[in-house]
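User: Let's play a game. I give you a shape written as C-alpha cells, and you guess the letters that built it. Ready? Here's round one.
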C-alpha cells in the first residue's frame, strides 16, 4: 500500500462515497472497514452493498486498520465515534468529523467528544446537504468545512474540495455540528406530519420553527445563528426533511402512518436513523442550558411512546401565541 494522502474510516454509504470521489481524483485514498473480513469482501467484490449501483475505483485501497495520513475523515455511525477515535494511529494528522449526532448519555457534540478524549490532533468538521449516492455520482454539491484556525481551514478546503464538491469555510464548529445533528430530529417530525396526511403547510411550518429552535440552542452553546441559516443548518434541514433518500424522513413517515420506527438495536450501520438516538440527547442538552425546543421535545416523547402524534400536534398548536422569533 502506498503512503496514504486521505484515510476514510467507515464503510457506510457516506464514507464510501467520499472515498470514491477522492480516489477518482487520483488521491492516494484508503477506506478503512470495521474488521479484516469486511475489508477483504470489499477488496474482492469492489462493490459496497451500502452504496448500491457503484463500483469502487481500482485505485482505492481498502484496509482493516487505519494508516497514518495527513487527513483522516471519520464516518462511523455517530454513537460509535468514541470507539473509532480509539482506532486512530499516533500522529499529528488532521481529523475531519463527517458523522452527525449528539452522544447518548453525555449529550456532547462531535467536537466536544474529541476535545475531551485527550487526542491531540487538529480537528475539523465536514457537514452539509449531501446524499451519499449523489456525491458518489459526482453530481454538483456543496458543504461546510468548519475549523477554528483560518489558515489551516483554508488549506484543508483546498485539499478536500473537488470540481463537483464545493466547500465553504466556517470557524463555528459547534454551530455546524449542532445543525447537522438537530436536523435529523426535525426531519423525523416532518416525515411524521406527511405520513399522517397533515399536509405541506404543516410541514413547512414545522421545518421553519424547527430551524428557529436549532438556532436558539446554537447561540446558547456559543455558536452562531448565522451558521444555522446556511448550508450546515437550513440547507441540510431542507434536504433531510423533504428528500425520500433520507432515512430520518422515511422513519418519520412510518411513525406518521402508525408504524414503529426502527430501534437503535435493530438498525445496522447502513440503516442507522441517527435522529432516533439524537432526539433525547439533544433535548437533554437543551434543557441543561435552559433552551426550549418544543418540536424536539415532541419527537422525543413520541419516540418513547409517551404520547400520540395527534396529542403532540395539538400541544404544539396550542402553545402560547407570540411574535415570531
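Assistant: Ready! My guess for every position:
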Amino acid at each position: 500500500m502506498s503512503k496514504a494522502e486521505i484515510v476514510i474510516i467507515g464503510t457506510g454509504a457516506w464514507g464510501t462515497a467520499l472515498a470514491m470521489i477522492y480516489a477518482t481524483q487520483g488521491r492516494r485514498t484508503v477506506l478503512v472497514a470495521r474488521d479484516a473480513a469486511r475489508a477483504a469482501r470489499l477488496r474482492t467484490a469492489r462493490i459496497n452493498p451500502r452504496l448500491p449501483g457503484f463500483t469502487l475505483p481500482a485505485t482505492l485501497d481498502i484496509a482493516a486498520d487505519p494508516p497514518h495520513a495527513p487527513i483522516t475523515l471519520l464516518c462511523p455511525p455517530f454513537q460509535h465515534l468514541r470507539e473509532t477515535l480509539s482506532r486512530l494511529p499516533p500522529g499529528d494528522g488532521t481529523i475531519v468529523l463527517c458523522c452527525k449526532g449528539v452522544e447518548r448519555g453525555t449529550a456532547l457534540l462531535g467536537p466536544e467528544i474529541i476535545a475531551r478524549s485527550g487526542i491531540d490532533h487538529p480537528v475539523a468538521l465536514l457537514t452539509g446537504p449531501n446524499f451519499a449516492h449523489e456525491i458518489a455520482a459526482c453530481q454538483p454539491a456543496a458543504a461546510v468545512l468548519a475549523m477554528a484556525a483560518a489558515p489551516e481551514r483554508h488549506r484543508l478546503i483546498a485539499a478536500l474540495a473537488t470540481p463537483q464538491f464545493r466547500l465553504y469555510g466556517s470557524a463555528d464548529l459547534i454551530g455546524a455540528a449542532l445543525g447537522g445533528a438537530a436536523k435529523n430530529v426535525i426531519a423525523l417530525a416532518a416525515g411524521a406530519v406527511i405520513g399522517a396526511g397533515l399536509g405541506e403547510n404543516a410541514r413547512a411550518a414545522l421545518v421553519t420553527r424547527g430551524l428557529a429552535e436549532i438556532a436558539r440552542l446554537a447561540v446558547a452553546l456559543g455558536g452562531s445563528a448565522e451558521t444555522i441559516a446556511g448550508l450546515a443548518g437550513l440547507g441540510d434541514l431542507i434536504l433531510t426533511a423533504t428528500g425520500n433518500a433520507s432515512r430520518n424522513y422515511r422513519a418519520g413517515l412510518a411513525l406518521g402512518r402508525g408504524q414503529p420506527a426502527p430501534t437503535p438495536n435493530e438498525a445496522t450501520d447502513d440503516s442507522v436513523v441517527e435522529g432516533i438516538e439524537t432526539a433525547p440527547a439533544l433535548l437533554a442538552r437543551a434543557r441543561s442550558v435552559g433552551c426550549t425546543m418544543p418540536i424536539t421535545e415532541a419527537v422525543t416523547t413520541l419516540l418513547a411512546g409517551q404520547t400520540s402524534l395527534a396529542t403532540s400536534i395539538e400541544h404544539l398548536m396550542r402553545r402560547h401565541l407570540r411574535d415570531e422569533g
